[in-house]
Protein backbone atom coordinates (compact mmCIF):
# COMPACT_ATOMS: atom_id res chain seq x y z
CA UNK A 1 0.00 0.00 0.00
CA UNK A 2 1.40 3.40 -0.88
CA UNK A 3 0.20 6.95 -0.34
CA UNK A 4 0.80 9.08 -3.41
CA UNK A 5 -0.13 12.37 -1.73
CA UNK A 6 1.67 12.02 1.62
CA UNK A 7 4.82 13.75 0.46
CA UNK A 8 2.88 16.87 -0.45
CA UNK A 9 0.86 16.92 2.74
CA UNK A 10 -2.31 16.38 0.71
CA UNK A 11 -5.13 13.95 1.44
CA UNK A 12 -4.39 10.26 1.67
CA UNK A 13 -7.50 9.15 -0.18
CA UNK A 14 -5.62 7.44 -3.01
CA UNK A 15 -3.83 4.71 -1.06
CA UNK A 16 -3.66 1.61 -3.21
CA UNK A 17 -3.04 -2.01 -2.30
CA UNK A 18 0.15 -3.46 -3.75
CA UNK A 19 0.03 -6.83 -2.00
CA UNK A 20 -1.65 -8.38 1.05
CA UNK A 21 0.29 -8.13 4.29
CA UNK A 22 0.65 -11.15 6.62
CA UNK A 23 -0.26 -10.70 10.27
CA UNK A 24 2.47 -10.26 12.88
CA UNK A 25 0.28 -11.77 15.65
CA UNK A 26 1.30 -9.29 18.37
CA UNK A 27 -1.88 -9.10 20.45
CA UNK A 28 -0.51 -7.53 23.64
CA UNK A 29 1.46 -4.62 22.22
CA UNK A 30 -0.35 -1.30 22.15
CA UNK A 31 0.53 1.29 19.52
CA UNK A 32 -0.14 5.02 19.84
CA UNK A 33 -0.60 6.62 16.42
CA UNK A 34 -0.18 10.38 16.29
CA UNK A 35 -1.14 12.18 13.09
CA UNK A 36 -3.24 15.27 12.47
CA UNK A 37 -4.47 13.96 9.09
CA UNK A 38 -7.63 11.94 9.79
CA UNK A 39 -7.29 9.63 6.78
CA UNK A 40 -3.64 8.83 7.47
CA UNK A 41 -4.37 8.21 11.16
CA UNK A 42 -7.30 5.92 10.32
CA UNK A 43 -5.34 4.01 7.69
CA UNK A 44 -2.37 3.47 10.02
CA UNK A 45 -4.76 2.42 12.79
CA UNK A 46 -6.50 -0.08 10.54
CA UNK A 47 -3.16 -1.44 9.32
CA UNK A 48 -1.80 -1.89 12.85
CA UNK A 49 -5.00 -3.58 14.04
CA UNK A 50 -4.78 -5.95 11.05
CA UNK A 51 -1.25 -6.81 12.24
CA UNK A 52 -2.64 -7.77 15.66
CA UNK A 53 -1.76 -4.66 17.64
CA UNK A 54 -4.00 -2.76 20.06
CA UNK A 55 -4.31 0.83 18.82
CA UNK A 56 -4.93 4.24 20.36
CA UNK A 57 -4.77 7.51 18.43
CA UNK A 58 -4.07 11.18 19.00
CA UNK A 59 -4.73 13.98 16.52
CA UNK A 60 -2.10 16.40 17.84
CA UNK A 61 1.11 16.45 19.82
CA UNK A 62 -0.42 17.73 23.06
CA UNK A 63 -3.00 14.92 23.15
CA UNK A 64 -0.24 12.37 22.54
CA UNK A 65 1.94 13.80 25.32
CA UNK A 66 -1.05 13.76 27.69
CA UNK A 67 -1.75 10.09 26.88
CA UNK A 68 1.92 9.16 27.36
CA UNK A 69 2.13 11.04 30.65
CA UNK A 70 -1.14 9.63 31.95
CA UNK A 71 -0.21 5.99 31.24
CA UNK A 72 3.58 5.71 30.79
CA UNK A 73 3.68 1.91 30.44
CA UNK A 74 0.58 1.57 28.24
CA UNK A 75 2.26 1.96 24.86
CA UNK A 76 5.04 -0.25 23.54
CA UNK A 77 5.22 1.61 20.23
CA UNK A 78 4.52 5.20 19.22
CA UNK A 79 4.15 6.12 15.54
CA UNK A 80 4.18 9.88 15.23
CA UNK A 81 4.14 12.39 12.43
CA UNK A 82 6.85 15.04 12.68
CA UNK A 83 4.69 18.06 11.76
CA UNK A 84 1.86 18.27 14.31
CA UNK A 85 -0.23 21.03 15.84
CA UNK A 86 0.22 21.69 19.54
CA UNK A 87 3.58 19.94 19.91
CA UNK A 88 5.73 18.54 17.14
CA UNK A 89 6.94 14.97 16.71
CA UNK A 90 10.23 15.68 18.49
CA UNK A 91 8.32 16.82 21.58
CA UNK A 92 6.22 13.64 21.39
CA UNK A 93 9.44 11.59 21.05
CA UNK A 94 10.99 13.29 24.10
CA UNK A 95 7.83 12.81 26.18
CA UNK A 96 7.53 9.16 25.13
CA UNK A 97 11.15 8.36 26.00
CA UNK A 98 10.86 10.27 29.29
CA UNK A 99 7.64 8.47 30.26
CA UNK A 100 8.92 5.02 29.26
CA UNK A 101 12.57 4.61 28.21
CA UNK A 102 11.82 1.23 26.64
CA UNK A 103 9.15 2.56 24.24
CA UNK A 104 9.88 2.30 20.51
CA UNK A 105 9.15 5.51 18.59
CA UNK A 106 8.80 5.57 14.81
CA UNK A 107 8.82 9.03 13.22
CA UNK A 108 7.00 9.60 9.91
CA UNK A 109 7.11 12.77 7.86
CA UNK A 110 6.40 14.27 4.49
CA UNK A 111 9.15 16.82 5.19
CA UNK A 112 12.09 14.45 5.52
CA UNK A 113 15.63 15.74 5.73
CA UNK A 114 18.92 14.21 6.76
CA UNK A 115 19.12 16.66 9.66
CA UNK A 116 15.71 15.69 11.04
CA UNK A 117 16.46 11.97 10.59
CA UNK A 118 19.77 12.28 12.45
CA UNK A 119 18.12 14.35 15.19
CA UNK A 120 15.32 11.77 15.56
CA UNK A 121 17.75 8.89 15.96
CA UNK A 122 19.98 10.85 18.36
CA UNK A 123 16.97 11.67 20.50
CA UNK A 124 15.94 8.02 20.69
CA UNK A 125 13.66 7.26 17.75
CA UNK A 126 13.85 3.64 16.67
CA UNK A 127 13.21 4.47 13.01
CA UNK A 128 12.29 7.29 10.66
CA UNK A 129 10.09 6.87 7.59
CA UNK A 130 9.76 9.50 4.87
CA UNK A 131 6.39 9.89 3.16
CA UNK A 132 5.36 8.50 0.82
CA UNK A 133 6.14 5.07 2.19
CA UNK A 134 4.67 1.66 1.51
CA UNK A 135 2.87 0.05 4.42
CA UNK A 136 5.18 -2.91 3.78
CA UNK A 137 8.04 -0.68 5.01
CA UNK A 138 6.13 -0.01 8.22
CA UNK A 139 5.41 -3.71 8.52
CA UNK A 140 9.14 -4.47 8.40
CA UNK A 141 9.84 -1.85 11.08
CA UNK A 142 7.05 -3.24 13.31
CA UNK A 143 8.34 -6.79 12.82
CA UNK A 144 11.86 -5.71 13.86
CA UNK A 145 10.44 -3.98 16.93
CA UNK A 146 8.38 -7.04 17.82
CA UNK A 147 11.47 -9.26 17.43
CA UNK A 148 13.51 -6.96 19.70
CA UNK A 149 10.72 -6.94 22.28
CA UNK A 150 10.64 -10.74 22.19
CA UNK A 151 14.42 -10.93 22.68
CA UNK A 152 14.26 -8.44 25.55
CA UNK A 153 11.51 -10.48 27.22
CA UNK A 154 13.46 -13.71 26.66
CA UNK A 155 16.51 -12.07 28.25
CA UNK A 156 14.45 -10.99 31.27
CA UNK A 157 13.01 -14.51 31.58
CA UNK A 158 16.46 -16.12 31.41
CA UNK A 159 17.71 -13.71 34.07
CA UNK A 160 14.76 -14.66 36.31
CA UNK A 161 15.53 -18.36 35.79
CA UNK A 162 19.19 -17.91 36.68
CA UNK A 163 18.23 -16.06 39.86
CA UNK A 164 15.62 -18.71 40.65
CA UNK A 165 18.02 -21.67 40.17
CA UNK A 166 21.00 -20.37 42.11
CA UNK A 167 19.24 -18.13 44.57
CA UNK A 168 21.82 -15.57 43.47
CA UNK A 169 22.31 -13.65 40.31
CA UNK A 170 25.58 -13.87 38.39
CA UNK A 171 26.35 -10.44 39.84
CA UNK A 172 25.87 -11.84 43.36
CA UNK A 173 28.33 -14.66 42.60
CA UNK A 174 30.87 -12.14 41.34
CA UNK A 175 30.39 -10.03 44.46
CA UNK A 176 31.01 -13.08 46.65
CA UNK A 177 34.22 -13.88 44.79
CA UNK A 178 35.42 -10.28 45.05
CA UNK A 179 34.75 -10.28 48.79
CA UNK A 180 36.78 -13.49 49.18
CA UNK A 181 39.69 -11.93 47.27
CA UNK A 182 39.50 -8.78 49.40
CA UNK A 183 39.50 -10.89 52.59
CA UNK A 184 42.60 -12.76 51.39
CA UNK A 185 44.35 -9.49 50.55
CA UNK A 186 43.46 -8.07 53.98
CA UNK A 187 44.84 -11.24 55.61
CA UNK A 188 48.09 -10.97 53.58
CA UNK A 189 48.41 -7.28 54.53
CA UNK A 190 47.91 -8.15 58.21
CA UNK A 191 50.62 -10.84 57.98
CA UNK A 192 53.03 -8.42 56.30
CA UNK A 193 52.40 -5.77 58.98
CA UNK A 194 52.95 -8.35 61.72
CA UNK A 195 56.41 -9.13 60.28
CA UNK A 196 57.48 -5.49 60.31
SS-based structural class? alpha/beta
Approximately how much helix is present in the residues? Answer: 40-55%
Q: What does the radius of gyration come to? A: 24 Å
Low-confidence stretches are 1-27
Biggest β-sheet: strands ordered side by side in the sheet: 4-3-5-6-7
Provide an overview of this structure.
This protein has 196 residues and is α/β, with parallel strands linked by helices. Helix content is 52%, strand content 15%. The protein is built from six helices and seven strands. The strands form two sheets. It has a five-stranded parallel sheet, with helices on both faces. The radius of gyration is 24 Å and the shape is elongated.
Salient structural properties:
about 200 residues; alpha/beta; five-stranded parallel sheet; two-stranded antiparallel sheet; 6 helices; about 50% helix; elongated; disordered N terminus
SSE blueprint and pairings:
Elements: E1 2-3, E2 15-16, E3 30-34, H1 38-50, E4 54-58, H2 61-70, E5 77-81, H3 89-99, E6 104-109, H4 114-122, E7 127-130, H5 135-166, H6 170-195
Helix pairs in contact: 2-3
Short description:
The protein has 196 residues and is α/β, with parallel strands linked by helices. The chain is built from six helices and seven strands, in the order βββαβαβαβαβαα. The strands form two sheets. Strands 4-3-5-6-7 form a five-stranded parallel sheet, sandwiched between helices.
Amino acid sequence: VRCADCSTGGPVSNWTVEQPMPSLHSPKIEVLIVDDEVQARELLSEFCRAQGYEVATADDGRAAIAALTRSPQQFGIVITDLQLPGADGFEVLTAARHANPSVYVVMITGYASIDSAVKAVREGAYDYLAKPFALGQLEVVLRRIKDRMSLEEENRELSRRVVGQDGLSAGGDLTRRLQAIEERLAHIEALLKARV
